[in-house]
Design a protein that fits this description.
32% of the residues lie in helices and 14% in strands. By secondary structure, it is an alpha/beta fold.
Length: 392
């Protein structure tokens, strides 16, 4: 299935390490929260209130502003059946959308394949970071990985332009098509050719970009600046991926979690302002997820691996609100000391794939799932209009 929504892009941000959902969206009116977390509970008076039960962590002020504008959906209780507390296995589940077996294809790699089935644009998917996350891995699908867009490219440090051109010409001939190559050499050659094309194209993005938004001087802020530069350059990139962390807060959680969210929420706030300045705020959706939540009870200065997390979907075309029920803190409702998930993350994936990108989600998430999250291009929320409280 080929998408007809050619102007829409998806930015996926992974909160690596397991974000503490309970200290992100806080049940500040529930006494059990403070009973279970005497050392890391956020004081009630500090919480940024969403309603009379839930509120944002006080270090997520920009998210509260996006919420007030009606452009942030909070996906409560997100997870999957029989949750796994291993970072490696749980991340793999989210990467492949296959909780019941080991998957071989990343969900976003499959999305990129379906968005560009003939592989015409080697920049349909771009990862901002080192290596290639499994979520983007798919046989025959090229994905560029960018550490720093300002210095990205082949041989960028070679000062002598004549020597650089000679080296690039050698690279091109080495990896270019030629008769007599075996299958392995052809695959390597195609990867090399794709890298050459992608590097040359991506290097043009920063010089084409201009903005009045000043991003902070930290890695996640610069990542979102890079995403904006590529998006504004109109290079045909549809899928953007990045990671932020580590959120593995076994200790010193209050300080670590606060800094991570201050940097992240400010970066996303600046990014959404940047898109609005360029009049493309309704063309992009941001999905923020983590592989699992944390234990309900603290361990003294942090909390350990758990389940039942929170995700966010953000953008000018998102009908913001609370989606999914907030998991119960009652001991009878817990899953071995964890929050019980009550909506499957593949429902959120399916929503984004079908409603936003215009693709068939079934073969990508390996089944049919409900997707009532409201994504409506060119939507507007009138002042005072109530936000939805739905189920995923």
């Amino acid at each position: 299935m080929t998408s007809t929504y050619g102007d829409r892009s998806l930015v996926v941000l992974e909160l690596a390490g397991g974000n503490d959902a309970l200290n992100t969206i806080i049940p500040y009116n529930n006494g059990l929260y403070y009973d279970f977390r005497p050392n890391i509970g956020i004081p009630q008076e500090d919480v940024l209130r969403i309603d009379d039960q839930l509120g944002f962590n006080p270090n997520i002020v920009p998210f509260k502003h996006i919420w007030d504008a009606g452009n942030l959906a909070i996906i409560n209780g997100i997870g999957y059946p029989s949750p796994n507390r291993s970072h490696f296995r749980s991340r793999d589940v989210w990467y492949t959308a296959q909780p019941d077996k080991i998957g071989f294809e990343g969900w976003l790699g499959a999305v990129i394949r379906d968005l560009d089935p003939t592989g015409e644009n080697v920049l349909t998917g771009v990862n901002f970071g080192r290596g290639l996350p499994r979520a983007l891995a798919c046989k025959g699908v090229p994905v560029a990985s960018v550490g720093n867009l300002e210095t990205y490219g082949l041989l960028p440090d070679m000062q002598d332009e004549m020597k650089r051109r000679y080296a690039l010409d050698t690279f091109s001939r080495m990896y270019g098509p030629a008769p007599g190559k075996d299958a392995v050499a052809q695959v390597l050659g195609q990867a090399g050719t794709d890298a050459l094309k992608g590097a040359d194209t991506l290097r043009t993005a920063p010089e084409m970009y201009s903005s009045n938004v000043e991003y902070a001087d930290n890695p996640i802020a610069q990542t979102f600046k890079n995403v904006s530069q590529v998006m504004c350059a109109g290079l045909g990139t549809r899928i953007y991926y990045a990671q932020h962390g580590s959120f593995d807060t076994h200790g010193n959680e209050l300080q670590t979690h606060a800094k991570l969210w201050q940097d992240l929420s400010t970066a996303i706030g600046d990014f959404t302002d940047d898109l609005a300045e360029h009049s493309i705020e309704k063309d992009a959706v941001i999905l923020v997820f983590s592989e699992f939540g944390r234990r309900i009870k603290d361990n003294g200065s942090g909390c350990d691996h758990g389940s039942g997390g929170v995700a966010f979907v953000i953008g000018g075309s998102v009908n913001g609100g609370l989606y999914g029920e907030y998991p119960s803190l009652q001991e009878k409702d817990q899953l071995e000391g964890d929050l019980h998930f009550n909506n499957d993350f593949r429902s959120t994936y399916s929503t984004v794939i079908e409603k936003w990108l215009g693709l068939d989600p079934v073969p990508i998430v390996h089944g049919q799932f409900e997707h009532p999250l409201d994504l409506r291009p060119n939507r507007s929320l009138s002042p005072g209009q109530p936000k939805p409280r739905g189920r995923l």
